[in-house]
Structure formats: structure tokens, C-alpha cells
Amino acid sequence: MKLWILSLLSLFSLASISVSAQKKHQDNQFILNGTINGQIDGSVYVRYRDLHEKFVVDSCKLQNGHFSIQGSIKEPTITFISTLKKAIPDDDDMEADGKNSTLFFLEPGTVTAQLNPSDFKNGQFSGSASQVQFAELNGKLMKAGNAAEKADITRRFYNQYSSSYVTAYLVSDSHYKLDSLNACYKRLPPAVRKSSYGEDIQEKIEKKEKVAVGRRAPDFKQKAADGTEVSLANFKGKYLLLIFWSSSDMSSRAQSMELANVYNRFKDKNFTILGASIDGEKTRKVWQKAVQQDNLPWMQLAPLKNNHNPAAIQYDVEVLPASFLIDPKGKIIAADLSAKDLDKSLEAMLNR
């Protein structure tokens, strides 16, 4: 009798779990209904993060200009839509040309899209509150005249929608410095912090904390231009400016030329510079030519047998040029100083 009761309770428990899981799945389902005006046939492709936070690609055939795609998502999620299969991004960075592809925010429930061929950027979406916010921001950014105006518009958006999934997505896709990332993350509500975008922000914060001012500079080994292997530890005992750059990035090369004056002024006072290029196998010749043309006097590193620089990943380099001032004990004491500010800092430390 006891066994029968226990078995019955187990069945009820399993049934309850099954119903709960089914309800959760239904709560996360979406239906995307759309029309591409003036286009009768063809295919529509969408790429998004699914219920398990994995990027997936769904597609369907147009029927007299109409399409309908169903799936499940964990939360409001940025979604790529296009009529061109070759336009589908294959990494985390989703970009759309606005002609035959665009980005929008998909949400659980029914979302409707009205699109025009070769003008997807002006498509109309309904049924997604996050998309309303996203469209509002994009509309204002399109009217902005310069980078400063765009930055101000984005800042105002963050202040107005500080608890939005859209804000979390934008911050997770940004190149913000550690203090800005922390400030934005702390304003997000718990539910959004637990979202895929919130987790992305937290991961960015953790990476940047490892190379923040006050932390020990991570050691690495790499070959110099002459083929000799160099370790960052070789420079202990000196003030070192580690600068990441690229031969194809003119701002990097311009900054290096400015740093040459600082280098010449302090090179005999326990200071040196170490250049670490992100150039790889594909740009080997371009890098070699740049090193010769610029005639920079400090040591240059480049992992020319790779397609990227592992040290740049280790130091979480997202924007070039990027630099870290390291003290004789191997501690990071400043980052991304201009040539003028570096000169002032070295003057204060080495000429006192």
C-alpha cells in the first residue's frame, strides 16, 4: 500500500514538473508574422539567441509576400532578419546593411513585421516593447550630426531606460571602460542582470578587472621582429609602456610617432616602450613595411603565425591604440595615456 501511494505521489510530481516545464516553454514562445511589400517569393532568414542562449538560424519561404516563423527565446533578444542567406552573420557580432537586412528586438508572444525590399532599416515592427525603445533610439541616432551627439543621445537613452533589455544589449556590445560598465550594470534590475546580455556585461567586467590599474600585469611571451622570444617579465625593474597597435590603424601609428619624443626623453631614465601589434599572418608584409617606415626605436612584437594576438586578448584590447603603463614591480599604474599625459607622469616619477 505504501509503495502504491509513493508511486502515485511520484507520478503526480512528475506530472507537475512536466506541466510547469510546458508552461515555461509556452511563455517563451514567439510567433513572427511578417510581410515584405512587393516581394512575392523568396526566403526569410532570422538569427537569434534561443531558449538555451545559443545562436540559431531559422528560415521560411515567402508565400505571396508573407512569412511566419515560430520558436522559443529566453527573453527579449536582438534578432537579425534578411532575405539573403549569405548575409547571415556567423559570430556574436551581428551587423545589418539596412537594405536587405536589419536588426530588431524579438520578444515572446506575437510580433508583426512590415518590410520593404532594399529598405529594411525602415521596417515597422509591432508586438515588442523592447523594439519600440530600440527604434526610438535608432531614429534619434540617424538624425545625429556627429559622434558627440550620438554619445549624448545614447547616454540619455540609458538614463531613461536604465532597466531595459535594450540598454543591457547596447552596453554588452560596447567598448566601455571598466567604470562605465560597472555603473551601467549596477543600474540593471536583477532579472536583466541574469539575462544573456547581463551575463555578457559581467564577463566584460571580469576581463577588464584582471588588467585594471593596480593589478599585476599578466605575463606573456612573444617573438620580436628579429625572431627572438621576449617575455614581459624581462622588463621588470623598469617603467614600461606596453602599447597595442596595428599597421593598418592610422591612429595607432600617429600615436606611436608622438610617443617617440617621450621615449627619447626618458629612455635613459629607467623607461622603455614595448610595441605589440595585432597584425597576423595575413598582414605580415604590411606590418614589416610599417615598422621600417615609422622607424620606431623600441622593441616590436607580433605573432605573425597567428590570425590574432593572444596578448591583446589577454589584456582585453577592444579599441586601438591601447596602452598600459607598468611600474618596475610589474604593476599596472595607468592605462591609455596620451603622449602628453605620459610625459607628465614620467616627469613626476623619474625626475623627482
Automatic annotation (TrEMBL):
Top-level taxon: Bacteria
GO biological process: cytochrome complex assembly
Signal peptide coordinates: 1-21
Recorded GO CC terms: cell envelope
Subcellular location: Cell envelope
Thioredoxin domain location: 211-352
UniProt keyword terms in alphabetical order: Cytochrome c-type biogenesis, Disulfide bond, Redox-active center, Signal
SUPFAM superfamilies cross-referenced by the UniProt entry: Thioredoxin-like (SSF52833)
Keyword Disulfide bond: yes
InterPro entries for this protein: AhpC/TSA, DUF4369, Thioredoxin-like_sf, Thioredoxin_domain, Thioredoxin_ResA/DsbE_sf
Gene Ontology MF, one: oxidoreductase activity
Keyword Signal: yes
Protein name: Peroxiredoxin
